[in-house]
Amino acid sequence: MVKTSNLLLPWEKLAQEGKLAEAVIEYVKGYDYVSLAELTRNLQPYMETKGDFIWRIDGNVLLWANASFEFLDLITSLVDSGQLYLEPCPPLVYFIDGLALTFPVAKKPPAKGYKTPHWLPVCLRVAGKNVKGGQKSCQKAS
After folding, report:
1. Total structural domains in the chain?
2. How far is Cα 1 from Cα 20, in angstroms, rounded to an integer?
3. Fewer CB within 10 A of the terminal residue: the chain, N end or C end?
4. Are residues 99 and 37 in contact, defined by beta-carbon separation less than 8 angstroms?
5. Which range of residues forms the domain containing residue 40?
């Protein structure tokens, strides 16, 4: 069932107009502590969110996987610009949202980093004044 424009939430209206960056910011403002699973699911009608790319930081620490380049580029751009920031969250958030990665959870990275991929579950939040952006690193899954 397609929603008519007068029944859309503000973020949905922006997304429908192709203003995806603004839509994501509005979504995160409205819901706060937004998992990448939740955002993947809710942006799917407006853009391809699933694909073969991985959001990786610090070598073997993964933030998200099986995503489209466009989706990760959008999210990492908003984080890198300081408009959104990432906050670690319990893996349970992702299980509740119905989509979690199957890698071991990154809890306390060793000084030399993990030897195998580990998942760091994070939620998106709207950045405040003294919050710096993240590190942009999208890679094609091998």
Report:
1. 1
2. 21
3. N
4. yes
5. 9-106+113-128
